[in-house]
Amino acid sequence: MKRYPRWPIHLALLAVSFVMLVPFYWVLKTSVSGENIFSYPPSIIPQNPIPYYYVDVWYAIPFARFFFNSVVVSAMTVVANVVLNAMAGYALTRHFHGKTLVMMLFLSCMMIPFQATIIPAYLITAKLNLLDTYLGLALPMFSTIICIFVFKASFDAVPRSLIDAAKIDGLSEWKIIWKVMMPLAKSAMATNVILSFIWSWNNFMWPLISTRSPTMQTLPLGLARFLSYQEDTTGALYAFCIMVLAPGLLLFLLAQKEFVQGLTSGATKG
Amino acid sequence: MIDDDFRRPDWKGWLLNRFVLVPLTLVVIALGWNAFVMTHNHGIVAGRVLDASGAPVEGADVQLWVFNFATFSVKASTTTKPDGTFQFDNNPSHNIQVSAEKPGVGRSARISVRLYFQSEDFYLKEPLRLTNGA
Q: Shortest Cα distance from A125 to chain B (angstroms)?
């Protein structure tokens, strides 16, 4: 079999990577140089880089408080997503009456945008007295259908005989999930962690609606508040973007191997 | 025991992995930085004032300007000692300017100082020079 040279693929990948990374580099560069985006000619390497725009951001708004709020809400969302989605995903691997209907319902619900459900979500949260609380901020993100299907695809790949063996050994369904399925679904877990974290971390609309006190705001709201405060924001705005992006990027870099595995598991079945 | 059929992961496996070590390193860095900040945030801003010939200026009026939302405003004033040195002990900001003036000797340019954190202790490396044309 004739082997084609790999360098054209690598060259194309390099070019695509360059195009995708340039905006990130530009944000990073501007965050330390404060250079106006319209300045001409643009400097590729930052001239006299300084870290003070980050200091400005830190003190312009209660950044530490917003960061803490975002961390708490995201942590609650991640834990809830892993636990609830694993349970739902496992249930969908079993046979029960109405399973097809449930699957259809799930898939059809994916087509409804969150904006369409905001009013009922707000009313339910208000009835539960959870407005302006961490639990109320995290509640609508506690389970996402895409992540349920990620777990389902991963659990489907586990041989049926393994579950039968665990049952013969006397394990309950609960223990089968946590002691048999979950250790085999680390990629799905990583995918759940990353996706739920990023969605929760970047969520703007729900915190905007459900928070009332400034001390309960999260970082995306802080960014909007920061923009309304400052006029000359070139360097500080980009520094803010880096500070908001950094945790998500770090999490992705930490778990990218499992993340990619999780998204592709089940894709090659059949 | 049924549970024994599934080998428990040892503590090293749980602790010595990138998901624990990276956040732990960040926490250590944050704690170290906060310790540094707590020991260097007395609000001291100090320096010297010289005249055009390089001689120390006694009794010059030195002003501390603090960035206030959109502009700089005077936060504090002090006068220089016989050796030309001055010191502020109550700088609350991270974005300040310092200027000096003495009638008959001249005035200095307003020097911008950016600090890494609020109330950071800072000693001006270059003295404020009073000139008539400033």
A: 33
Q: Find chain A residues with C-beta within 8 A of B27's C-beta.
A: none
Q: What is the DSSP letter of A169?
A: T
pTM: 0.80
CA-CA-CA-CA torsion sign (A137, A138, A141, A143): negative
Nearest CA distance, B68 vs chain A (angstrom): 11
Maximum separation of any 2 CA atoms in chain A, in Å: 73
Q: Do both B81 and B31 map to the same domain?
A: no
**A55:B115 CB<8 A:** yes
- Chain B: closest CA distance from residue A237 (Å): 16
Same domain (yes/no): B50, B111: yes
pLDDT tens digit string along B47-98? Answer: 999 999 999 999 999 999 998 877 899 999 999 999 999 999 989 999 999 9
| Residue pLDDT, tens place only, A123-161 | 999 999 999 999 999 999 999 999 999 999 999 988 889
Q: Which domain holds residue B23?
A: 3-39
Under a CB-based contact definition with an 8 Å cutoff, are residues A235 and A31 in contact?
yes
Interface contact flag, A254 B22, Cβ < 8 Å: yes
For residue B116, which residues of chain A lie inside 8 Å, CB to CB?
51-52, 55
CA distance A109 to A90: 19
**Where exactly are the structural domains of chain A?**
1-50, 60-264
